[in-house]
Every structure is written in structure tokens, then in C-alpha cells.
């Protein structure tokens, strides 16, 4: 137990620090990654793993919180280069890793011609190297157990993983986006699967867990768990009401994005937080479009 390591790797997405993290878990015998980022940063990931004294043959487990490309896009590419590794994924996400055509189509609608530059190639994951993880499963990896907890709201294919040895919760996107050195938490609410009520239920689950640290993919480790989750939920609901009112008025998507950007950035300015530092992890455009889709469906305006 003494040589359990958990290390944050900054994937330096598009050359920017503090945008996307992966976490390396190692006990000296085997290693795991929680989150792997997109293929565009996969070379960096492998270099950083080896720079930490972990040979690639030792990496046996690639665990992703959900299948969005900034968390899991590199899986297929990595499996071609990590001969001993197995990928672990939520049952709802699994078919879209084996055949990523719908995943790519969905992301292409959001990112258009930026797809390749942002994410790189999305290589299919061979079925035989994929293990499906269900709510309540415990994975024994790198000298510890990781408890998987189904946490919809941001996406239907989302798990968090609690490291029961250390109390670190690998939170994916359900615990929001926060930059080191700040307390401000932004809710990433992209289309098409945002579900505010499910998100609240997932946060209630998190509050019932013995979490010592939140390990966010965007970005880093935080110990003020209860305060952080409260701030996230407050803003998730506040922005829901803010966007609902505008959608009921019939504003355009462009207007909705602009109004939410002004509203959010003003909040951040009062806390002396740099808004642009959050935009790579969760930009206003996708946040606003996620709420728009959620409300139009819920209010029967779709
Ligand atoms: Zn996501």
C-alpha cells in the first residue's frame, strides 16, 4: 500500500496547460489511466507516462468516465500501442466505442471542420479489449479498488470512480469545471444529453460518498468537496433558470449564447477569475446550446 501513486498528467491540449487532465495510477507492478483525452494528445500522454518511470507494458487499464472525445477519444489509438491494456466503459457508451460513427457524427455537428484539429483520429475499440462497467462494480487496479457509480446528467454514459484507498473521486464532468487557484465552478452542459434533474440526483450521490479529493478532468485536485459541489449545483440551477427565461422569450441561439456569456463572465469578474481559462473545458456556446435543447424538449418547443 505504501507505494500507491496517483499522478495528474496535463495533456497540454492544443498547447494549452490546465485544459484536459489524465490520471496515472501505479503501484509499481501495474498501472492504470483514468481518462485518456483525445487522440490529438495521445503521444503526449504516452511520453508523460514513461517520463514518470512507468513502461508502457505496465499499463493494463484504461478507464474513462464517459465517452466524450476530450475524455475517451484516444482509447482505440492507445490500445494499438499498449499491448496489455483493457478499456473500461459504461454500458451506454460501449457500442459507440466499438463503432464510433455516431459519436463522430454527433461531435461533428458541434465542432464542424475543427474536428480533426481538436480531437484527431477516432480509432474503433476492438470489442475483445473492452470491458463494460456497471453501477456499483469495483475494479481492482494498480493496488486499489475503484468503485464505479452511475452519474447521469452531463451524459447518460457517465460514471465517476471512487478510489477507496485514497478517497480520491475521479469525477469526469459531473463535478464541473474549475481552474487551479480558484473556487469558481462552471457547469459543462453540452447537448444533447443534459438532464438537470438527473444531474442533481448524481450530485446527491456524490455527497453520500467518503470523498477526500475531487479529481477533475478539467482541471485538477480539490479538497473543499462539499462547498465545491454546492457551488456547482447552485450555478447549474441558476443558469437553467436564466436560459429558460430567454428561451421562453424566443431568443435565437446566438443571442442566448451571448447573454449567457455576459452573465457568466460578469460573475467571474466579481471573483477575479479569468473567464477564458474555463472556455477550453466548457465554452459558453456548448453550455447554452445544451440548455436550449434541454428546455425546448422539456417545454415542448422543439
Ligand atoms: Zn463530457
Your description of this structure?
The chain has about 300 residues and is an alpha/beta fold. The protein has two domains: about 1-125, Ribonuclease Z/Hydroxyacylglutathione hydrolase-like (Metallo-beta-lactamase, Chain A), CATH 3.60.15.10; about 150-300, Metallo-beta-lactamase, Chain A (4-Layer Sandwich), CATH 3.60.15. It has eleven helices and twelve strands. A six-stranded mixed beta sheet has the order 1-2-3-4-5-6, covered by helices on one side. Strands 7-8-9-10-11-12 form a six-stranded mixed beta sheet, with no helix packed on it. Strand 7 (about 140) and strand 8 form a beta hairpin. Helix 7 (about 195-205) runs antiparallel to helix 8 (about 225-250) and helix 9 (about 255-270) crosses helix 11. The radius of gyration is 18 Å and the shape is globular. The relative contact order is 0.12. The mean pLDDT is about 95. The structure holds zinc ion (ZN). Zinc ion (ZN) binds near residues 68, 71 and 173.
Please describe the topology of this protein.
Layout: E1 5-10, E2 21-26, E3 31-34, H1 42-51, E4 59-63, H2 69-72, H3 75-81, E5 86-89, H4 94-98, H5 101-111, H6 115-119, E6 130-132, E7 138-141, E8 144-150, E9 159-163, E10 168-172, H7 196-207, E11 213-216, E12 220-222, H8 225-248, H9 253-270, H10 276-279, H11 284-298
Parallel strand pairs: 3-4, 4-5, 5-6, 10-11
Antiparallel strand pairs: 1-2, 2-3, 7-8, 8-9, 9-10, 11-12
The structure holds zinc ion (ZN).
Amino acid at each position: 500500500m505504501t507505494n500507491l501513486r496517483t499522478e495528474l498528467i496535463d495533456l497540454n491540449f492544443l498547447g494549452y496547460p490546465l485544459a484536459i487532465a489524465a490520471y496515472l495510477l501505479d503501484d509499481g507492478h501495474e498501472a492504470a489511466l483514468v481518462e485518456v483525452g483525445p487522440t490529438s494528445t495521445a503521444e503526449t500522454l504516452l511520453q508523460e507516462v514513461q517520463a514518470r518511470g512507468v513502461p508502457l507494458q505496465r499499463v493494463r487499464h484504461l478507464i474513462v468516465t464517459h465517452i466524450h472525445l476530450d475524455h475517451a477519444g484516444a482509447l482505440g489509438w492507445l490500445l494499438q500501442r499498449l499491448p496489455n491494456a483493457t478499456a473500461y466503459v459504461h454500458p451506454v457508451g460501449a457500442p459507440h466505442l466499438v463503432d464510433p460513427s455516431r459519436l463522430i457524427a454527433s461531435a461533428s455537428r458541434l465542432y464542424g471542420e475543427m474536428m480533426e484539429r481538436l480531437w484527431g483520429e477516432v480509432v474503433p475499440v476492438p470489442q475483445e479489449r473492452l470491458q463494460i462497467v456497471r453501477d456499483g462494480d469495483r475494479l481492482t487496479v494498480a493496488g486499489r479498488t475503484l468503485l464505479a457509480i452511475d452519474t447521469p446528467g452531463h451524459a447518460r454514459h457517465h460514471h465517476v470512480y471512487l478510489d477507496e484507498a485514497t478517497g480520491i473521486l475521479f469525477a469526469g464532468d459531473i463535478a464541473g469545471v474549475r481552474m487551479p487557484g480558484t473556487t469558481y465552478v462552471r457547469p459543462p452542459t453540452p447537448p444533447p444529453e443534459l438532464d438537470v434533474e438527473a444531474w442533481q440526483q448524481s450530485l446527491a450521490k456524490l455527497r453520500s460518498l467518503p470523498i477526500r479529493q475531487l479529481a477533475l478532468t478539467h482541471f485538477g485536485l480539490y479538497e473543499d468537496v462539499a462547498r465545491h459541489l454546492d457551488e456547482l449545483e447552485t450555478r447549474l440551477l441558476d443558469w437553467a433558470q436564466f436560459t429558460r427565461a430567454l428561451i421562453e422569450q424566443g431568443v435565437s441561439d446566438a443571442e442566448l449564447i451571448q447573454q449567457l456569456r455576459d452573465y457568466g463572465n460578469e460573475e467571474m469578474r466579481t471573483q477575479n477569475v479569468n473567464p477564458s481559462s474555463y472556455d477550453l473545458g466548457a465554452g459558453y456556446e456548448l453550455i447554452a446550446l445544451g440548455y436550449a435543447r434541454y428546455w425546448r424538449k422539456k417545454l415542448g418547443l422543439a
